[in-house]
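help with this record:
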Amino acid sequence: MTTTYPSALTPNSTFAITAPSSGVPAPLHPKIHKAKSQLEKLGAYVVIGETVWTQQAARSSSAETRANELMTYFTDPEVDAIMPPWGGELLVQVLPKLDWDKLINSQPTWLIGYSDTSTLLCSYTLQTHFASAHATNFFDLNMESLDETTKQWHKILSAPSRKHLVQYSSPMYQSSWDALFDQDNPEGFDLDTKTEWRSTAGKAVSFTGRLIGSCLNTLTVIAGTKYAPIEEWRESFEEHTIVYLEWLDWGTAETYRNLWHLKEHGWFDGASGLLFDRPARSTSTEDFDAEQMIHEFADEIGLPIIYDADIGHMPPQFTLINGGLATVTYADGKGTLTYLE
């Protein structure tokens, strides 16, 4: 078995916006309307679910309501893509309430987003073998002038084939996630810092494999459960994997502990290399800093790690297709991701 891709997006595709994790507080509802308008400029038809408009007790609504709305969109043949408004905290509550047998036997639907949304993305791909897209959230689309890196999401998911399609590391990135909310109506991300990818190899490096990954804060929670059957998924194809991870709000020691947890659950078995983000709001533990931790972990698992890459909570970010076969390269502070199918 290999990866099954949802149909390529078209100018007439239908997008369903639903909140399986956090909904959007009332003061930010105008940005949801603006994001809808921006997506409609690409020709899309946009449906917004009831869960998007509510938020209480760190979730949009009850787990049952969130799961039912999500299943409605997943099983609607008219829906081509599902985009949560953003992530949140409690998407794990939804996973047991989904009809996974029904999803496995339904047509694949593009599932798009990151942060807590990636909990669902990763589980969806591992259990169904359908591709999903770790990319910008729907909320971010409210901005008028998205940078070239971010805008790639629509081009990549609209391509009849992604073979030979290349993404290049961004020139600049936003050094604080919170900067997105410092302005009432930002035209785009506040790209204030030069992008510089790094590698534990200390030189040019390249590795190839099927992409799989998530937000480490949430992936650690489902690793080792039936919702993240990494071994069964990996054994269904011949290629290596590339595991990509992003995280936020952790000290270095806590990050290491969670990477160790994934290692013990076999997540890096059969991998050709790892791709890490620019961790947001993260700090050193005493004199144990992130660079030392990453290099030590690379030595521990015997794999190269490319880090400070365009993933996660310090935008912009690549569009990473879970299940997609790709090559990641690094040289002289820059990187590329090239799809091979």
